Amino acid sequence: MTEKSLHLLQSIESALGAGNVTHHSDVDTFGSIPVLLALPGSANEVAECLRICSSLKASVVPAGSMSWLDGGNLVRRADVILSLKRMNRVIDYSPADLTITVEAGQTLADLNKLTMGERQWLPLDPPGGSVASLGAVAACNSSGPLRLRFGTPRDYVIGLKLAHADGSESKCGGRVVKNVAGYDMNKLYVGSYGTLAVLTELTFKLRPLAECAATMAVTASPEVSLLEFAQRVRASELEPASIFLVRRLIDSSGDALMIRFVDSQAAVDEQSTWLRRAAYDGFELRLLTDRESESCWEAVDRIDRLARCVVRISVPVSMAGQLIKDIATQNCSAAVDLGLGIARIALHQDEKDAAGSILLLRKQAEELGGTLFVERASSAIKQTIDAWGSAGAASGLMSSVKAKFDPESVLNPGRFVAGI
Fold it and tell me: Which residue has the higher pLDDT, 139 or 2?
């Protein structure tokens, strides 16, 4: 052990207690084995850990339940993983105001278990949502199939408490939905992948719990088009919560269109009836049972578990049809959000072929006016292919913001867009 490593270990153990620090963690993050896994129990302890790391020029990888440590680019250094999973307390819950404040280690599942007692919920369903910590969900602005109707974490975070790279602390936003006018700093931190600050406390606005949810599965004969049917749905007055084309996911042999409604019982019934009337010969519609629906959307959520290499492509909605044609040339499973033009694709290929497919799909996505993000891949692939692709003219601005907030590049060095 080097003198620096020993000093780092002793300093963080002094701040957190020896039982909350693991030396030589076997957690593999981006191909690098960090020296320490630290588990702070409060915002003050997070700030103290960051102050220590900053003074010793040690890099920090912020984390929650540590299920997405391999997301993004390879970090240049990983001296400490700072997991906030012990920080899982509810700070304040005001059902009358539809707001809740929690520590960053609180899970989405536990939050909704609490709020559903008041017929309220936080309508997010990010990948791995059953164990995802809310700090990580917000830091990655992570969303799932409900995004079409209900939005992303950026739409629900109204207040944050932050620990900065130098160990200082700050707040932005507040605990009421109508905050004072000014810069909405929440939107700077939400989606910054832990590169600007560590989120230690979050305040969310909630929504009343919907009365009913229903999923219709649509399959078609070769003579008719599921995509055309989906376009008719999108052009109608219907308000689906999700509209997905899934390939080799629900039915391993073909495609299916999954349309979900989350609303009042009357609204769900009316929209389901519209779908049945709109289907002509060649289409088969089936209302899924609650268990079948849960299994269907769980399969969409867990697509990243089907292959070692998974990418996410975003294109303009009008280009979704061409994106589906491009995907059809690949040996893959796919879940395509036809309401937003977002596809998650699991590539069933060896490492060499997967790397070639990523480059081809990125080129095709850019030609459609979109982007490709590498969700999961081996370290060997990420050493040669940037997870985010080119940021273009925005890279200079993003690098400047990073330099202002974290001049020593303590937090997740290299993980985010433009290598920041």
Answer: 139
What helix, strand, coil percent values describe the chain, rounded to 5? 35, 25, 40
Amino acid, single-letter form, for residue 236: S
Domain end point (choices 277, 296, 315): 296
SS (H, E, C) 9-34: HHHHHHHHCHHHEEECCCCCECCECC
Distances (CA, A) of 194 to 75, 163, 199, 223: 12, 11, 8, 48
pLDDT higher than 60, residue 249: yes
**Same domain flag for 200 and 103:** yes
The answer to the question of residue 402 being in a domain is no
Kind plus residue range of the DSSP H or E element containing 235: helix 226-235
Q: Which tens digit of pLDDT belongs to each residue from 142-156? A: 999 999 999 999 999
Assess if residue 104 is contained within a domain.
yes
With respect to residue 395, please indicate whether it lies within any of the assigned structural domains.
Answer: no
> 60-63 and 80-83 as β-strands: parallel, antiparallel, unpaired?
parallel
What is residue 101's predicted lDDT score, i.e. its pLDDT? 98
Q: List CB contacts of 277: < 8 A, sequence separation 6 or more.
A: none
105 and 201 fall within a common domain:
yes
| Domain span holding position 169 | 90-208
Q: Are residues 102 and 195 in the same domain?
A: yes
Nearest to 64 by CA among 16, 6, 132, 144: 132
Residue where a domain stops, chosen among 296, 327, 357: 296
Question: Is 174 found in the same domain as 147?
Answer: yes
177 shares its domain with 239:
no
- The pLDDT tens digits of the residues spanning 232-248 come to 999 999 999 999 999 98
> Which tokens belong to 241?
């919560």
Query: Would you say how long the chain is, in residues?
Result: 420
The domain that contains 10 carries what CATH number? 3.30.43.10
How many domains does the chain fold into?
4
- Residue 50: exposed, middle, or buried by beta-carbon count in 10 A (0-12, 13-18, 19+)? buried
CA 130-62-81 angle, 5° bins: 105
Q: Is pLDDT above 90 for 371?
A: yes
Residue 211 CB coordination number (10 Å):
13
CATH number, domain at 154? 3.30.465.10
Q: Are 195 and 164 in contact (CB under 8 A)?
A: no
Question: From the CB of residue 182, how many other CB atoms can be counted at a distance below 10 Å?
Answer: 8
Whether 343 maps to a domain, the answer reads yes
pLDDT classification of 86: cutoffs 50, 70, 90? very high
